[in-house]
């Protein structure tokens, strides 16, 4: 359970820190699961940046990411190299982020927050296969996949979906 809490803390922290600090950006379509996972599987921030830029969303500036980076450093120590994209200037719109961290919990991860999660679980299941765990209730849905050193977690509560992908280093 501690791993799950830690797994959820970092993406949630980034989403909270970044969601209210966006400048005006043009809207773009929702990326496919294949596009999201291509960013997540990148071995470096540079490659993730290149792949993320193809989605068509505006890349977040260093100034927009800095509050999250500072909070992450206080949480994890070490260093972190993040990059992120936002679908539009709306504070509650979709965000895709990627980072590589060194420190107590050295890892590579990405997070996708969406306000349109309707088919995301079905797309993930088609792409990754059946999840190892799946829990559905009237209020929320969670799913978890583990493939090698990659942990993929999906959670939805109401109209908000969150996809976290983490690679142990």
Structure explained in plain terms:
Keywords: Signal. Residues 1-26 form the signal peptide. The protein is of the alpha+beta class and 169 residues long. The protein has a single domain, classed as Protein Transport Mog1p, Chain A. Helix content is 35%, strand content 33%. The chain is built from five helices and eight strands; from the N terminus they run αααβαβββαββββ. An eight-stranded antiparallel beta sheet has the order 1-2-3-4-8-7-6-5, with helices on both faces. β6 (140-147) and β7 form a beta hairpin. α1 runs antiparallel to α4 and α2 packs antiparallel against α3 (45-53).
List the helices and strands and how they pair.
Blueprint: H1 2-19, H2 33-40, H3 45-53, E1 58-59, H4 62-76, E2 79-86, E3 95-102, E4 107-114, H5 120-128, E5 133-136, E6 140-147, E7 150-157, E8 160-168
Antiparallel strand pairs: 1-2, 2-3, 3-4, 4-8, 5-6, 6-7, 7-8
